[in-house]
DNA sequence: ACCTGAACACCGTTCAAGT
DNA sequence: ACCTGAACACCGTTCAAGT
């Protein structure tokens, strides 16, 4: 039966997860799907658009924050959850960064995050900016860990990143942000 | 006379500044220098290494913070200065992000930043983490503005980013970080 | 409506051979 | 020491033509 766009996107996510952005090429994707490269352009305008759909797919798998939790705690928990999900996918920070810049509120996970920033007491005039700060810390941490992993592979003198230490570093930064927010209630 | 590595890097910076990472290819760079593509590999191991040198060149142009300023103020000023410098160069966030992940203290500007984080009273155990947070906010802001610019070019329905508003958003986030630091003195 | 085949204009990298 | 020429194994995208 005919190919669907969902099928194209799902296979793209799979390729990204397994081999990274360097191997997520239109030609490779077509091969994986058993079609000619040109066939993909019936389902997707171009590679950029495909990557936005891939970002949406990655973010849609993140569990929503549990209800009834204090907002600061929920914000921290969701931030860690988003980071945990993305850190497993090579180049996720690049892919999601693109999609976020264009449409910050397009996915539920990032809307939840903005909502919690509101709940924590940030005035409406600064809500988007603070949400962006949290997103930068998440994507920066993910990108940093991934870059260090690549660097260690390329140069055996460099130590590979320690996942626990990276997660800890992320939470230290997040705690600074949360302290900064409390004073603005 | 013979090509030098500095010459190769300087031309690469120029290409990045003028046309972005998409046009900073080894072949294009070789053409610009009037040599065969293979010639570049005498001066540089590969493209990755070239990009690290490019990042160093970009960061080395940033003015150091004036002495005698209160540390929190100097930290804010330097952060804004780094952002201002990078936001003018397409894809600077990607290029610098790579170099920073591998060698956070390799350039003076980023060492100054880490030093000011210390001066502001952050305990030694959290210095690197907080410096990374500030760097994430800088690079995230730069990447976000650039991604929005690209998106607006590709899709005329999207508004182009307003430079002043982007700068303001950055400073709001930075202020949150600084408030979070004050409590940890 | 959906896909193939073939082309166009590119990439990064290697390496024998030249000077 | 430094560079050329030529090759290898790729890219994203387009589009007439087929079913």
From TrEMBL, chains A, B:
<feature type="domain" description="HTH tetR-type">
    <location>
        <begin position="2"/>
        <end position="62"/>
    </location>
</feature>
<dbReference type="InterPro" id="IPR009057">
    <property type="entry name" value="Homeodomain-like_sf"/>
</dbReference>
<dbReference type="InterPro" id="IPR023772">
    <property type="entry name" value="DNA-bd_HTH_TetR-type_CS"/>
</dbReference>
<dbReference type="InterPro" id="IPR001647">
    <property type="entry name" value="HTH_TetR"/>
</dbReference>
<dbReference type="InterPro" id="IPR003012">
    <property type="entry name" value="Tet_transcr_reg_TetR"/>
</dbReference>
<protein>
    <recommendedName>
        <fullName>HTH tetR-type domain-containing protein</fullName>
    </recommendedName>
</protein>
<dbReference type="InterPro" id="IPR050109">
    <property type="entry name" value="HTH-type_TetR-like_transc_reg"/>
</dbReference>
<keyword id="KW-0805">Transcription regulation</keyword>
<dbReference type="Pfam" id="PF00440">
    <property type="entry name" value="TetR_N"/>
</dbReference>
<feature type="DNA-binding region" description="H-T-H motif">
    <location>
        <begin position="25"/>
        <end position="44"/>
    </location>
</feature>
<dbReference type="InterPro" id="IPR036271">
    <property type="entry name" value="Tet_transcr_reg_TetR-rel_C_sf"/>
</dbReference>
<keyword id="KW-0238">DNA-binding</keyword>
<keyword id="KW-0804">Transcription</keyword>
